[in-house]
Amino acid sequence: MLTDGWGKKLKKQNEEGRMNNRSGFTLLELLMVVIIIAILAAIALPQYLRVSERARGAEALSTVGAVRAAQLRFRAQDPNNLYAAVMPNLDIDIQPSTLWSVPAMSTSGPPAVGSVSVTRLGAGVYGGQSVGITFGSGTLCGNFTPMMPMPACADD
Question: What SS3 state is found at 29?
């Protein structure tokens, strides 16, 4: 490519004496752009997957937190001061999820203790991992690795 001393492109005459003004990208320039986009995608995709899995974990925490709040309301109104043994006894409507199992409750007799947990559905990397919360203290538990480290679930 011919340029003057100032970086301005000069037009070149072809054999017929006409000015040839070529514009466009070379194959090398297009290849470099594709490589740069591929590198950025390789960096961004794993981060996006981690963030989306954390959002799914937040959905699970929201579900178990809502069940815990309903259990605390139930226990406050129960004459025996016990937690509900089954979900229909609670004043909460849990919508079915394609990502998480139906909340599984664990309650035991006096003193009334219990916890609720949900399990990640699917056969992927996080399939079978769970998130839970104890009713009394509200301690988070489980083994869902995208979230912060949590102890194993046990009734309190």
Answer: helix
| Four-CA torsion 7, 5, 16, 21, nearest 10 degrees | 10
The reported pLDDT for the residue numbered 156 is 43
First CA to last CA across the chain, in angstroms? Answer: 77
CB atoms within 10 A of CB 76: 8
Q: Tell me: the pLDDT tens digits for 69-83?
A: 888 888 888 888 888
Per-domain boundaries in the chain: 57-142
Q: What is the pLDDT of residues 93-147, one digit of tens each?
A: 887 778 888 787 776 654 457 788 888 888 777 888 888 888 877 888 888 877 7
CA distances from 50 to 43, 132, 146 (A): 12, 20, 7
Instruction: Say which residues have a Cβ less than 8 Å from residue 154's Cβ, sequence separation at least 6.
Output: 115, 134, 141
Within 8 A by CB and 6+ apart from 145, the residues are: 126, 129
Q: Is residue 103 a contact partner of residue 116, using CB atoms and an 8 Å limit?
A: yes
